[in-house]
Each structure stands twice: as C-alpha cells, then as structure tokens.
Amino acid sequence: MGSDIAEDDIDEQERRDSAFGRRSGERMVHRLVELGIALSSEKDHDRLMEMILLEAKSIYNADGGTLYLVTDDEKGLSFQIMRNDTLNIAMGGTTGRSIPFPPVPLFRDDEETGKPAKNLNNVASAVYHSGKASNIEDAYEDQSYDFSGTKKFDQTTGYRSQSFLTVPMINTEAEVIGVLQLINARDGGGSPTSFDSSSQPMIEALTSQAAVALENQILIHQQRNLWDSLIEMLASSIDDKSPYTGGHCQRVPIISKLLARAACDSDEGSFADFDLTEDEWYELHVAAWLHDCGKVTTPEYVVDKASKLETIYNRIHEIRTRFDVLRRDAEIHCLKRKLSGEDPAEADAEFEAACARLQEEYVFVAKANVGGEFMDDADIDRLKEIGAQTWVRHYDKLEGLSPPEAFRAKANPPPVPPATEPLLGDLPDHVVGKYNLGELYNLAIRRGTLTAEERDTINDHIVVTIKMLENLPFPKKMRRVPEYAGGHHEKMDGTGYPRGLRREDMSIPARIMAIGDIFEALTAADRPYKAAKTVSESLRIMGFMVKDQHIDQELFELFLRSGVWKEYADQYLEPFQIDEVDINDYLPKPAKEEAG
After folding, report:
1. Burial 199-218 (b: 16+ CB within 10 A, else e)
2. Where would a tag sit more exposed on the chain, N or C end, judged by fewer CB atoms within 10 A?
3. Model-level pTM?
4. What's 310's DSSP letter?
5. For the domain with range 242-298+455-595, which CATH number is right: 1.10.3210.10, 3.30.565.10, 3.40.50.720, 3.20.20.70?
6. Which of 245, 199, 209 is closest to 461 using CA atoms?
C-alpha cells in the first residue's frame, strides 16, 4: 500500500512539474513575442540595444553582460553596451558614458605565415567566426580561449568572472552582425552559477529577433545617411555651380531651423500649439536642403549674369572692339584727307572730335551694361542712336561656328562680307531658343541685368523644384517636403509664385523657409549683382516686405525677438556686416503711434 502511495505521489509531482514547465515555457514564449513586438517598434538605436541586453540578463538573472556590434570595416567587435550589477557598471547606450575599451579584433597576424588569420583566442570573436553559441561554466578552468584579460580585470576590481554565455546575433542574410555576452548567471540566492543549457535556446531565439530588429534599424540609419549625403551633395553641387551663390543651399537650412526652434519654444499667438516631432524636424531638414534643387536646370550664365551683355562671357569686349574699329576708321579717314591735300589742322580737329564722341558713347554703353542705374526712355533712345552707327565686317561669320550655331545660321544666313552692320545689333543669330541675346535688347533692360525671359528662367527654378520633389516617392512622414520647399517665393498677399498662395494657404514651416531664404539672400556676401548688406539694412528691407504683405509679420516679429537674426549673423556673416541693431526700429508700431 505504502509503495503505491509513494508512486502516486511521484506521478503527481511529475505532473505538477510538467505543468509548471509548460506554463513556464508558455510564459517565456509569450514574453519573447512581446519582446519581439517591442523590439520592432523601438526607433532609438541605443534603447534598442539596451533592451536586448537587459532582457537577456533578466532571462538568466545574469550579473553582467556586454553587447558588441561588428565595426563598419568588419575587422572588430565594438563595445556598445556594458552592464554589471555587482560592480555598478553601466556604460554605453543611453547612459551617456562612453566605453573606453578598443574593439575586439576579429583577425590577428599569423605568426607562421604573417598573414591575417581569424582571432579564435577571444571567445567573442570566436563566436563571431563560428556563428555558434559558447557556454563556459568557469573561465578560470577553461582552456579553449584566452581569458587573461578577464583575470587581470578581476584582479583590479576584486570581481570573480565565472560563467560566460556568448551568443552570435545573426541577421536574415545569415551574417553575424554582433555578439551578445552574458557573465555569471545567478541562482536563487544570488550566487554565481553556470548558464542552464535548457534555457539557451530562448537566448538564441532572443538574439535572432534582436538581430533582425537591429539590422532593420541599422539599414534605416544607413539609408538615412545615404539620403542625407545625396541631398547635401545635390545642394553643394548647386552652390558650386555658381561661384556667386556658394553656400546658399547650405545656409538657408540653418536659418530655417533656428526660426523653427524659436517657434516651437514660443507660447504666443499661432505658435502656442506649434511643435515639431522628430519626423517633422527631419521633414523640414530635407525641405530646407532641397528648396533650390530646381536650380540644377538653370543655365549658369543666367544665374551668374552680372552684366547685361553677359552670356558665357561679357560681350562688352566685342563692342569695345567695334568702337576701336570706328576710331581706326576715323583715323584712316583723317590721314586720307591729309594725303588728298585737305587742311591738316581741320582734319585733325575733326578726328579728335570723333575720338571724343566715340569715347563718351562707349562709356555710356559700358555703364548701361553694368545695370546699376535705372534706364529711362531717354537713355534707351540714346542707346538706339549710338547703336545705329555702322561698321564694316570683312570676315565671314559662318566660319568657326559650332554645329548648333551653324544650324541656326543656316535659317538666317548673315550678309556676305564685306558687310555693313550696326554698331549695336539685334540680329537674327542673337535669338537662341527662348532667349534673345540681342545687344540693344539686353542693354535696354531698365533695371538690373536680366531680360524678362531670363527672369522667368530664374523664377522657374521653383517650379522645377516642386516638379522634381513631387515626383519623388516620399514616405507618408515626408510628404510635405514639396510644400515646404516649394513655398519660399510665395507672398502673404497671394502675389508670389508659382502658385499665388496666400498666408492662410501656407503652413508655418513653409512661411519660415521664405524668411530664411530672404535673410540669407540679403546678407550674402558672394553675389555679383550687389554688395553685401549689413544686418540693419537687411532687417529694414524685410520690415518693408512685412508692410507689403510679402513675408509673415508674426514670424518676422519672432525672428527679431528671439534673436535668430543675431545668432546667425554672429556665426556666418562678415564682421563689417554686423552693425548696431535696435529691433524696435523694425517691429510694428502700435496703432496710436502709427496714427500720430
């Protein structure tokens, strides 16, 4: 009877143990599922690695642990996270404390061959190469690996490193991307013990999940780095394309981000509820860097046109040569008169008068070419009068042409030499595509150096920008990039371009970028058509733009009050540009003061 009772007790205990084991296994599986979900949703790289290590420590109640990642050159295992409860060590990850140890080398020089060989002496590097876990009961008794460094560490700290469980982190491509190492499993009383091999599959399952999550995050990080490098390369290329706008695409993001930060920090007006998430900050970052990407299609000679006659070069040199020809013709005429017996004094006087007139006329044309002053109707009539003078061309204009020039010339062949041509001409061969390169046509530009079609080309860069960006398959979190980047030439009253948006049609980031673009352009010291403006001059102009409803008043006030203008000026402007500024001079006056 007693024997039967004992056997029944044993069977019952086994059933209980089995049920407990099943429940424990179910809890562990459930825990791994929850952890897998948490790992896949964690965006922060450091927190993700900490989560991996701390969960592994928890499963085994391990005293310490280290997480290594393979270095970019795949020659070492770099320390990412270190934890040790007994020694109160917490380094790497979110702690802000860097790990002072160099990467574990994955290769060493073979003493016999002198060639690199796998480093199998260190347990972490050996696990990397084998792709299999290693479970060591006592490092002091193990002969498979070199634990001299561990023993030296123990001597220094008084610690006793005993059991080691080292597991490879293998991604979906069957590549080892890191190694997880746990130290000193603890029993119920907290004493060091060996790592139970029955729980090892759980750790390996954890590291597999972790490797996939980590790989995804690394890939996302690498893709973002690649994307950032591409947009910065494009922006730098646009800046480098023109020696006069260098740095514009790089400086506008700086101003825009400073002003966006001030808007986020403000609790007044329309900024009270304004804030940007991490994804929205990145959206603004990309938009700011790409706000002028359409300029990649704008011809250099249009962007860089510093004089009216400039194309690839300044054609004033051709016109000066023609004036020299007229002067020489006048001199030859003078000499011929003398040879024919006419009064030398009278011939010389007329020659000197002709030279003085040509000199005065050339100076007038040359000054008109600079485009610094407004050309009125009288100036334009004078140009036409000067240009109507003729000179004789003795050489064929069809010789030495490029294939495109020759093709255009066939449609309107020039007169056969000797041919009489105007001093300043608007000739058929001056029309190239949509551009009119006619000399009189360009010299007669009333203000600045650009013709109407060239100004359209400059303005079209924003249309091209929007078209380029809207054709990119931005993810959902970045779909406002085209709107932010494409709105920096819009005006609050709807008179801007290309879409004629009004203030209420534009988001705060789009309006921010308009201010960033304008302030950078006004203060830029590298433009061919204007001298660098001081801060006070730039703010005064922007104040007028506020009154004309071209830029957002509320944002401009924030720009002034927050000191964004000063922070940028101190870092990026020349010392001579930074003058005395009283922001009250540019802030809107109270209604009573305006009336007074």
Report:
1. ebebbbebbbbbbbbbbebe
2. N
3. 0.68
4. B
5. 1.10.3210.10
6. 245
